[in-house]
Each structure stands twice: as C-alpha cells, then as structure tokens.
Amino acid sequence: MTNAQLYTIIALGIYALAMVLIGCISYGKSKTLDGFLIGGRNIGAWATAFAYGTTYFSAVVFVGYAGQHGWNIGIGSVWIGIGNAILGCLLSWLLFANRTRKMTKKIQAKTMPDYFEKRYGSKGMKILAAVIIFVFLVPYSAAVYKGLGSLFGAVFPSVETWVWMLMIACITAVYLVAGGYIATAYTDLVQGVIMIVGVICLIATVLNHETVGGISGLMANLAAYQAANSGELAKTGIELTSIFGGSSFKFLCFNIMLTSFGTWGLPQMIGKFYAIKDTAAIKRGTVISTIFCLIIGCGAYLIGSTSRLILGGQLPAGGIDSVIPTLLMEVLGGGTLGIILLAIIMILLLSASMSTLQAVVLTSASAVAVDLIPSVRKKQTKNETQMLLTRILCFVFVACSFIFATQNIPIIVSLMSFSWGVVSGCFIGPYIWGLFSRKITKAGAYAGVLSGLLVVGIATLVITVNADFATAAKMSPEMGVSAMAVSMIVVPLVSAFTKVKDTKRVDEIFECYNENI
Predict the structure, then answer these.
(1) pLDDT, tens digit, 9 for 90 and up, residues 300-331
(2) CB-count exposure of residue 311 (10 Å: 0-12, 13-18, 19+)
(3) 77 Cβ contact list (under 8 Å, min separation 6)
C-alpha cells in the first residue's frame, strides 16, 4: 500500500465515522414525518445555504462537467460556474425562497408532488410527479456514483470501482435513514466546509504547477498551447483562450442555462426552501449560498481549464471522464504534502457527491412513500407507516442507483444532463407559476408537466431512431433547456383558456404572503 492510499483510507475512515455519528445524533429529531423530511421547518441559514450548495455540486461537476468542458472549451468554461452561482443560486433564492417557504407552510406541503396536489387540488398530478421523480432520479444518482468511482479508481487502481461505489452507498444510506433531513442538513454543513477548503487547496496547487505558471501564466501558456496545436484544435473548433468559448459559444450557453435554470425545477433543490425557518435566515442564506457556489463552481471549471497544459494535451486512456482523476494524480501524487492534499481532495469530492446523493435519495423515497403509495391506496396511511416506508425506500433507492451505476455506462455528463433536463423540464412551469399567479389552473399545470416530458421524450426517440441513444444523450442540454422553456410558456397559455374552479381555496392559499409565517 502506498502512502497516498494509506492517507486516503485514514481520511475516509474519519469522515465516515463523523457522518454516521451525525446521523445517530439526529435520530431523536427525526421521529416525525415533518422532522424526517423537512427538519421541522426549523433549519438555519448556514445549514440551508450549505445544503443547497452541496446538493448543487457533486463529483460529476468536477469529473464530468469540469473535465469535459475545461478540456474542450478552455478558460471560457468558467462562465458555467459564474452562471450557476448567479442564475442557479442567487436568483433562485431571491425569487423563490421566501414564497416557497410561506406557501408550502400554509398548505402543509412536505414534497414537490405534495405541493402540486395541494396547490392545484389534483391527486392525479401528485401521482404523476412522484413517478417522474422516482424514475428519472435513478440515473441522476447513478451518474454521481460513476463520478466518484472514477476518482477512487485513479488512487486505488487495484480495487474494483464497484467496491468504492458500494462503500459510498452504505455510508449514505446509514446516516440518511437514521437522521433524515436534519442529518443531511448538518452533514452538508460539514461537507461544505470540507469542499471550500479542498477547492482552495486544489486551485492553489494546480495554478502553481510548472506547466500552468500561476494565474498570470495560465492565459499565456494556454495561448502557446493553442498556437502549437492550432491544426489539431482547428479541426474541432476548440479555442482554449477565448473568454466566451469561441465556436463553442452556443454549446456554452445551453450548458449554462441547463445547469443554472435547471435548479429552479429540481425537487431536491427546491426542498431546501421548505425547511428554512424564517425570512431572516433566507436573507443570510442567500449571501452564504451564492459565495459558496462561486467558490466551488468557478474553482471546478478553472481547474478543468488547465487540464490540457498539465496532461500535455494527451487525453487519458479512460477518456474524458478520466481527465480530472489523472490531473489530480499528476499534481498531487508526489511528496508528503501532495499526498495529504490528495486525501483532502478525495474527501472533498466524496463530500460533494454524498450531499447530492442524500438529497436525491430522500426526494425519491419520499415521492413514493409519502406521495405515491398513500394516493393509490384506499386506506389512509399512518404517519408512522409512512416514516418506516420512507426509511426502507431510502435503502431501495440507494440499491437501485448502485446497480444502475455498475452497468458501465460511460456517458456520465450526458446521463446527468438528461435526468436533470427531464425532471426540471416537467416541474419548472407548474412550480414557479403556482407561486406567483392565482390564475394558473390545474389544466395548465398538467400541460406544463406533460409538455416537458414530451419534449425530451419525443426528441430522444427521434434522434435515437435516426442515430443512436449516445447521440441523443449528447444533445441533452438542448433538450432540457427546450423542455423548461416550453413548460414555462405552456402553463400560463393553457391557463388563459381554462378556469380556476376553486377560486376561494386559491385565494386562501395566496393569503400566506400577507401573513407573518
């Protein structure tokens, strides 16, 4: 066993024990359904802000997005991180946090499907939303497993990747099942601190690499590399020093829109606003979360943009998903300090992924246990039964995601983009318009969900028939952005030609904005 492996194992052991301990401590506060799913609506600014940020960024951001886009776009890829912080985080908090908190508290909604049922008076919509969440978030979490597996495989090449994915699955399941949302909120706080420290250390180490030459040398060295390889790069239209991505500008814009506006409709992101305790916490959380996202998002893509310099322009044998793991081994593989930093970075990426996994698992499990099963059963389900079922389904969902991740599907970024686009494309219109307008009807909300599903579904089918699924998956950003845009347009359009049947109930719901809750 090498020193790097030994240090990493020790760090992993300490980290795993800390996560399990937090889960056990939180068990007493998660014995009610409200406590388990939304922390009793009493989570503070720091915990909520870090929960939002850590759920946003997983190992896929580093391994998939930052590795692929940094390699193919260069310095322009940093705009994705900036867009995520400004559009996906700051704007989301400013527009939706307080309205979501107040409305979901008024109607006592604990999940996104629950919100749809009580806002639009439709049990059918609740069932449809629950099915979409459970089906399409499995590949989302599988992509997270794949990202982590690639990283640990680079440090421990003699150990099968599935072993690491299984370990991650077990740790996540244990503390999530024990402590529910309270455990995830406080583990996210710890994980967020680890992520910030890790990213700052990694940025400093990467920029000081001899091939990069610091911030001042980065652009000059990229320009020199571009000139030396102009013939090869010109064939694919890669312009590493272009601030706006050069010929990749359109591709860059679609990825910024998908990964930024996509958070506006993702239930695992919106759910953070259900749990925050008051307006004052939202104001603080907005600032904290935005700063967090700027550091992590911009840091990840900045690191990715140095990959061609550090790796000498040689794409690793494992393909685009191996760019960041190989880069890490190159800059951190030698010397005691480098080995210690490597252990810290591995914990950083593990933290990023586990925070995302726990949010996705809790969202999916609750969609079935709290929303789907009680809606199709004739008998009323007790809270205790829903609690037990939710805990069991957390295990089931983790197992399904793990199995899916072991099927050797290489298109990690596209897989995550596809799931992200489908789920957000279905929910973004009904969710946002439902917060702001009393005139949105049940028919309009249904149209928004179905249109988002059909846009991605039909586009995927057509492209797969004419080419293959891999080609369709590569176009997932365009499909996801189109689905979100269509959903936002269709909801008010259909509502304009239909009527709200229960105006009194809707008026009572909107009184929440005038109440001190």
Answers:
(1) 999 999 999 999 888 887 777 778 878 887 88
(2) middle
(3) 66, 69, 70, 245, 252, 301, 304, 305
Q: How would CATH label the architecture of 3-406?
A: Up-down Bundle (1.20)
* Max CA pair span of the chain: 71
pLDDT, tens digit, for every residue of 364-409? 888 877 778 777 766 666 667 777 788 888 888 888 777 777 776 5
Taking only the tens place, the pLDDT of each residue in 87-134 is 999 999 999 999 999 999 999 998 899 999 999 999 899 999 988 888
Considering only 22-36, 119-133, 291-305, which range has the smallest mean pLDDT?
A: 22-36
Q: What letter represents residue 408's amino acid? A: N
- Please name the amino acid found at residue 489: I
CA distance 215 to 498: 57
> Measuring CA to CA, which residue among 331, 263, 336, 337 is closest to residue 303?
331
Q: How far apart are CA 111 and CA 104, in angstroms?
A: 9
Query: 26-64 burial by CB neighbour count: b if 16+ within 10 A, else e?
Result: bbebbeebbbbbbbbbebbbbbbbbbbbbbbbbbbbbbb
d(CA 470, CA 449) in angstroms, rounded, equals 25
Cβ pair 452, 432 in contact under 8 A? no
Sequence-ordered alpha helix ranges (H) in 208-278: 214-228, 230-236, 249-261, 267-275
**Which 3 state secondary structure label does DSSP give 199?**
helix
pTM: 0.87
- The structural domains of the chain, with segments of one domain joined by +, span 3-406
Quote the Cα angle for 406-425-492, to 5°.
165
Buried b (16+ CB within 10 A) or exposed e, 5-23: bebbeebbeebbeebbebb
